[in-house]
Structures are given as structure tokens and as C-alpha cells.
Design a protein that fits this description.
heterodimer, A: alpha/beta, Rossmann fold, B: alpha/beta, nine-stranded mixed beta sheet, two-stranded antiparallel ribbon, 13 strands
């Protein structure tokens, strides 16, 4: 009889991604209704050193699969490890972050286990004994409540959608062996950008759009540096070749949910809004008073972004300094 | 190389979406239906691989009669054959869809399957990897560059914070990400030729695959809270406006 919750965490270079704590908290909330232990899974050889942190969010048990083959986030190796842990724990629900790795694991696991999957959820709860998730569809234009039948129910949670809540759990740490035999992907090269704030995890995002007029994004980058934020780009800026695709915010780019979103020279197409609608506070700077974004922001400034944005940076530096 | 492409017809991303009276689906009227943008990348990449290595491109979709339009677009771009599994009005979830598609793919002998990493209506990110799992083949998602040689595919894929270069033996499945290529527009000769290319229609009930009842069902749909216009910050100079904004962000919004 499947019981309990398995929370699959993600760590990079010996530090948990914030989504891991959000996922444990989501699991804790489900456990209150469904009962059973909350088990956190940590993967990778650096997992042991940080495993105990999972107890600070309520994990009863923390399993560490410290195989070095899990260090690089290869989806086949990680899926295989999670599959083995699921067989050991027999959870009723698996919660995992909807990160690039988490999405792959969740999708393959749904087929391997013939299990229901709700992807990129902004909420999850138990309703009438069933696991029900709320998830955006149609690029976020619609919110759908979906009911999952059968177990394990797999719920992949969108970063920054569910709050990580401190809670104390027994947190018994146990190292487990997994077999990565038969995995099929070979890692040839890895190119990471250390220190670059991930758009999907950022507290502040400053985005440049067509109004930037070219690849010189200094005014946006300076503001981002001053506030400790990430730099985004609209589709126009990416299509022009001014910024890489990985910086794009929008329906065919990344979905962000910062506390503060500053759109500089962004007109506000529907597809762009799809990428930042979950921001807590939106500021728009545009020289066109008719720009659609002004009907969707909390604070709007009509003006030349090359004057206004540096002025904002200077003003914030004044307060900080 | 025998290459299969999985594609889906979806509402165009600029569509205004309304909820149907049932509250469990969207209103289908008045929508501009197009090939899923990530599937355009898939068709394009498949064509490029075929043109370099020889072989054929077969496009698959599961959908209603209307979905033929998306297949015709793929054929006009240069795909060789198209298969439509008629869903016969059955409601399937992502796993059910993957089971049916995998069932059809297994009837062929494809070296490579190319799919969009997600469909922009359901946003499930599920079908591609699930099909690969059901076919017991490797998959690599979010591919922005690929090269096939010696029975292997080497892909550059995006991950949070960077890129990985991965290799897998064929047969394999890859999913596309923006940046992989620029899909070609169908030429007029292409459109004319496409009219003669066969579309194989297979009713779901005759495929031999039973997708089962959906395990994931939509119980309600609603529009999210809509953002509305806030305050316009006034000021004589950029510095004045900046000062007023930062004050509001601190004191009112309490976000800095």
C-alpha cells in the first residue's frame, strides 16, 4: 500500500537549489493530509555534507544516493536512481522541482511507473482524498486544477511558486546505494556559467526589450548588479541577436516569478506577459505612452530608458550607500 | 536515416483564450490553430538531417481532422509522409498520448525521433521523454545543436545555468529548443507537391494500443488574476521620476 511522500531534491556543486526546500515544504503539506513519512532524496557525492538541511523543512528521513554518476545532472542516471528509491519507499506521492532536470525525470518516470504526472504546478493539495494540482496552461493564460488518480502521483513544482517553510523533521540521514548500470547518456562537455543568477530563481529581474536598440545592455546590467538581480531579454531582443535565447523571458522563453520585474523598452506582447505575469511587482519604462505593458504594470514611467534606468540605479545606490 | 517527427496542432501563442462553459476546457471557436512552434523546429531539423544523410521523414500527429492542416504544412516544408492517428473524440492525458504514439512508432524502424520539448497548449513537457521511455530508447531534451555520426547522436542541450554536450546511441529521441534552427517557410512548389503526398489516417481504436482512461483529469479551469494598470510615475526629469519610483518601491510596494 503506497504511503508517504518522496521529495526529490536537486543540489549543484554542494548547495541545494532553493526549489528543493520548496518541494520538501509542498511534500510536508501533503503529508499532513495523506499521512506517512516525508522522505527527502539527495543525489550526488556532495549530498552527504548538506543532507541535514532537509530536516529544517520537515523531512523525517533523508536518503543520500552519493554515487558520483549523479553529480552532473544526467537525466537517465538520475531517473534510474529515483526509480530505485521509489521502489524502496513506495510513496503515494513524488514531489520534484520542475527544473530542466526535474522535468526530464518526472516525464520518464511517469511512463516507467505508468503514473499520473502534473507538470509545472503552482499549488498542490489533497481534495476529497485525491491529489489535486493547480498548473498554468496555454502559456499561463489559464490556470487548471487537475486531479491525479493512482500512485505514485508525480507532482513537478514550478520554482518560486510554493513557499519554503521552516519546519522541524526527525531528519534521519541514510546513505543508499543505487545502481547506474545500463545508463545510456555520455557526458562529453559541460559549460556552466557560475555566479550567474538563474532567471527562474531570481528575486529581481531586469529585462531589456526592442527599445534597447542594440546589444549594449549596460544600463540594464548595471541596474541588475546593483539590486542583485538577473538580466532578461524580450523575444525581440533575442531575435535581433542582441542577447542569447537562454535570457529570453516569455512564453517561448523562461517563465519568471521575481518579487520585482523591471521591463525596459519592452512593449508588452501577450507572449511576454506570459513569462512574467507571476512577478509580484512590475515596473515598466518605455518612451511610448501607448505601449501595452503600461496597462499591465504596477508602476510605469514614460521616458528614455537610457536616462531613466541609470537614474534608478543611481537612486538605489544612494539608499544602499 | 529513417526519421520520425512528432507534431501537434495548437492555438497560436497570440490567441486570446477563453474558458468554455464546461469550465474544464477552453473555447475552441475563433482560435488560430498552428503547428506547435517547437514542432516546427523538429520538422526543420529532421529535414536537414535527411538532406545530409539521406532517408525519409515521417511526421506523426494524434488529433482531430483539423490537425491535417499541420501535417500538410510539414509535408509542404518537405516531409515525405504523414500519419494522423484519429483520436475519435477520446480524451487522453500526456501518458495516454505517449502510449499511442510509441505504439505507432514501434511499427516503423526509426533511427531518430524528433519532437518539440513541449506543446504550448498543455505545457506538459511530457510526451517526448515518455515516448522514449516506452520505446526503451535514450532521449535528450532541449537540444540546440546536434550531429549524427557512426550510429550516435551528439547534442548540445540547455540546462539551468548553462549547456551540456551529451551523446547517445541511435535509435534515440531528441526534443527541440529555440535556437536549434530557423524553420523554413513552405514554398509554393512545396505546397503544391504536398497535396500529392499521402496522409495515412489511423483510427485510435484500430491501432492496437489501448491508452486506458486518463490518470490526470482537468476538474476546473479559470483565468488567472489579471494584472491591471497601476500608477504612472510623473516627474520633470529622469532623476525626479527615478526618485519617485524608488520611494514607491520602498515605502508602498516594500520590494526594495
Amino acid at each position: 500500500m503506497p504511503k508517504g511522500i518522496l521529495a526529490v531534491t536537486e543540489q549543484v556543486d554542494g548547495a541545494f537549489k532553493n526549489i528543493s526546500f520548496e518541494v520538501i515544504s509542498a511534500g510536508k503539506k501533503l503529508g499532513e493530509d495523506l499521512g506517512g513519512p516525508l522522505t527527502a532524496l539527495v543525489m550526488g557525492s556532495e549530498g552527504e555534507a548538506i543532507a541535514a538541511q532537509a530536516a529544517e523543512y520537515g523531512a523525517d528521513r533523508i536518503l543520500v544516493a552519493n554515487d558520483a554518476g549523479l553529480n552532473d545532472g544526467l537525466s537517465d542516471a538520475c531517473t534510474q536512481a529515483v526509480d530505485q528509491i521509489v521502489a524502496q519507499c513506495d510513496p503515494a506521492v513524488i514531489v520534484i522541482g520542475a527544473t530542466s532536470l526535474g522535468k526530464d525525470i518526472a516525464a520518464r518516470l511517469s511512463a516507467r511507473l505508468q503514473a499520473p504526472l502534473a507538470m509545472d504546478c503552482v499549488d498542490v493539495r489533497v481534495d476529497g482524498g485525491q491529489v489535486v494540482s493547480t498548473r498554468p496552461m496555454y502559456g499561463g493564460k489559464v490556470l487548471a486544477d487537475v486531479s491525479l488518480s493512482g500512485s505514485p502521483a508525480i507532482v513537478a513544482i514550478r520554482p518560486r511558486a510554493i513557499e519554503a517553510v521552516a519546519a522541524s523533521g526527525a531528519g534521519e540521514v541514510e546513505t543508499v546505494a543505487v545502481s547506474l548500470e545500463g545508463t545510456v547518456l555520455t557526458l562529453v562537455e559541460k559549460h556552466m556559467e557560475p555566479g550567474k543568477i538563474d532567471l527562474t530563481e531570481a528575486d529581481v529581474v531586469i529585462t531589456g526589450g526592442r527599445g534597447m536598440g542594440g546589444e549594449d545592455f549596460c544600463v540594464v546590467e548595471n541596474l541588475a548588479n546593483t539590486v542583485g538581480g538577473a538580466v532578461g531579454a524580450s523575444r525581440s531582443a533575442v531575435d535581433e541577436g542582441w542577447r542569447p535565447v537562454s535570457d529570453q523571458v516569455g512564453q517561448t522563453g523562461k517563465v519568471v516569478a521575481p518579487n520585482l520585474y523591471v521591463a525596459c523598452g519592452v512593449s508588452g506582447a501577450i507572449q511576454h506577459l506570459a513569462g512574467m505575469a507571476s512577478s509580484r511587482v512590475v515596473v515598466a519604462v518605455n518612451k511610448d505612452p501607448e505601449a501595452p505593458i503600461f496597462s499591465k504594470c504596477d508602476y510605469g514611467i514614460v521616458g528614455d530608458l537610457f536616462e531613466v534606468v541609470p537614474a534608478i540605479t543611481a537612486e538605489i545606490e544612494k539608499i544602499k550607500g | 536515416m529513417e526519421i520520425a517527427v512528432l507534431l501537434k496542432q495548437v492555438p497560436a501563442t497570440e490567441s486570446m483564450i477563453e474558458i468554455a462553459d464546461s469550465d474544464t476546457a477552453i473555447k475552441a471557436e475563433g482560435i488560430n490553430w498552428v503547428m506547435n512552434p517547437y514542432d516546427e523546429l523538429a520538422v526543420e531539423e529532421a529535414l536537414q538531417i535527411r538532406d545530409a544523410a539521406g532517408g525519409a521523414v515521417t511526421v506523426f500527429t494524434m488529433g482531430p481532422e483539423k490537425a491535417v492542416e499541420a501535417l500538410r504544412t510539414a509535408l509542404a516544408m518537405g516531409a515525405d509522409t504523414a500519419v494522423r492517428i484519429d483520436s475519435e473524440d477520446r480524451v487522453l492525458d500526456g501518458l495516454g498520448t505517449a502510449k499511442v504514439l510509441a505504439g505507432e512508432l514501434k511499427k516503423g524502424a526509426f533511427d531518430l525521433i524528433v519532437a518539440g520539448h513541449r506543446a504550448v497548449d498543455d505545457d506538459n513537457f511530457q510526451v517526448g521523454p515518455a515516448v522514449a521511455e516506452l520505446m526503451n530508447i535514450p532521449h535528450i531534451s532541449m537540444v540546440i545543436d546536434q550531429e549524427v555520426s557512426d550510429g550516435k547522436i551528439r547534442c548540445t542541450r540547455t540546462v539551468d545555468g548553462g549547456t551540456l554536450v551529451l551523446e547517445a546511441a541511435l535509435p534515440a529521441l531528441i526534443t527541440t529548443q529555440r535556437g536549434l534552427n530557423e524553420p523554413r517557410y513552405a514554398s509554393l512548389p512545396g505546397i503544391m507537391k504536398a497535396k500529392k503526398k499521402p496522409i495515412d489516417t489511423r483510427p485510435l481504436s484500430e491501432t492496437g494500443t489501448d491508452p486506458g482512461d486518463p490518470l490526470v483529469t482537468t476538474v476546473a479551469m479559470r483565468l488567472p488574476p489579471q494584472r491591471t494598470a497601476g500608477q504612472m510615475i510623473e516627474g520633470d526629469t529622469a532623476a525626479d521620476k527615478a526618485a519617485a519610483l524608488v520611494k514607491a518601491l520602498r515605502e508602498e510596494a516594500k520590494v526594495i
